[in-house]
Amino acid sequence: ARYFTINDYPQGTPQPELFELHSTELPGLKDGEVRIRNTWLSVDPYMRGRMSGVTTYVEPFELNTPLEGAAVGEVIESRDQRFKQGDKVRHMGGWRDIAQLDADTLEPLPSIEVPEQAYLGVLGMPGMTAWTGLNKIAEMREGDNVLVSAASGAVGSLAVQLAKAKGGTVVGIAGAPDKLEWLESHGIKAVSYRGKNAQQLSDDLKQACPDGFDVYYENVGGDCLEAALDNLRVGARIAVCGLIADYNATKPSTAPGNLAMILIRRVRMQGFIIFDHWSHYPQFLEEVGPKVANGEIDYEETIEDGLESTPDAFLKLFEGANKGKMLVRL
Ligand code: NDP
């Protein structure tokens, strides 16, 4: 079996040399263990936090120990009666080709007819995050104007479509031209942040939605947050899902200069971590799953091939090289 480790807790943007690929002979299975051939690996922005060496809402990765992450694969050997050869499962033994895990940590794939890797994206943790942030944290209401940052990514691309289905004006912030096109093709007004300061971005948001936003779904922070704060309506709600603009920062970020807007516009701003809401996953699947299966909800994937490409796929998240969910296919 082959797996990746990191050899340090990096400052700033991680370099490819941080990641080391190892090979090992796996021991025989113990009672209650299952061996899985991974077919798809997920790389996610939150993994950067686990590389910082400090405990956030989750423990840091241990150095020189196999990295973890969501993965989908097929059972090839089992010493647990709940799983048999050929079963498709989701688990946290990613960053490796063969995973050997305690059966208690495996989940059978749900039975909705979608490609299996969708359970790492639109119908997995990122999709669940979009749905939860919009409905349960921002408490989006029918007709609300909604702004989403990193709007064409794994989380953002579902958030904008869910918002569009029951909203007024939906605006997405994204980087590259093909991402803006994808948003526009789904009826979402697209605004690029590239090459703009917060004031310019704020002006563009005002033009896209002159009445202002009732909800801001925050994936980025930095200038996006500052520009959003200028454009909120009284009583707006901000769901703080992620702050990716800060994940590689070497200095603590500063508060936006217009933080007073939270007071002036009586804004509620709430962070959330999706693990705390996982009990709603069946409800999410029931509501969103059929719409993904019948094509009513669209999703994009950016796929890198081969285990060796996993660090690269991960690092590309911070360059905006992915449209939709970033995945590694084994
Ligand atoms: P994405 O698929 O959205 O990939 C990351 C995207 O972020 C990039 O494609 C890029 O898009 C954008 N981006 C990267 N760096 C910057 C930057 N410096 N400034 C502006 N945009 C940037 O990832 P996910 O959908 O998986 O995650 C989106 C956010 O949600 C992240 O912040 C993540 O940490 C958070 N999250 C939080 C969870 C929770 O429980 N709270 C759970 C899951 C995700 P572009 O080209 O548009 O710049």
Which labels suit this protein?
Rossmann fold, alpha/beta, 25% helix, 2 domains, six-stranded parallel β-sheet, Quinone Oxidoreductase, Chain A, domain 1, binds NADPH dihydro-nicotinamide-adenine-dinucleotide phosphate, 15 strands, globular, 330 residues, seven-stranded mixed β-sheet, 9 helices
Could you describe the 3D structure shown?
- By secondary structure, the chain is of the alpha/beta class.
- The protein has 2 domains: 2-120 and 300-329, Alpha-Beta Complex (Quinone Oxidoreductase, Chain A, domain 1); 125-274, 3-Layer(aba) Sandwich (Rossmann fold), CATH 3.40.50.
- It has helices spanning 46-50, 125-137, 154-166, 177-185, 198-208, 222-229, 260-264, 281-293, 310-316; strands at residues 2-6, 19-23, 33-42, 71-78, 88-91, 98-102, 107-108, 146-148, 170-174, 189-192, 213-218, 232-240, 268-271, 301-305, 325-329.
- Strands 3, 4, 5, 6, 7, 14 and 15 form a 7-stranded mixed β-sheet that branches.
- The mean pLDDT is 97.
- One of its GO terms (molecular function) is oxidoreductase activity, acting on the CH-CH group of donors, NAD or NADP as acceptor.
- It comes from Vreelandella rituensis.
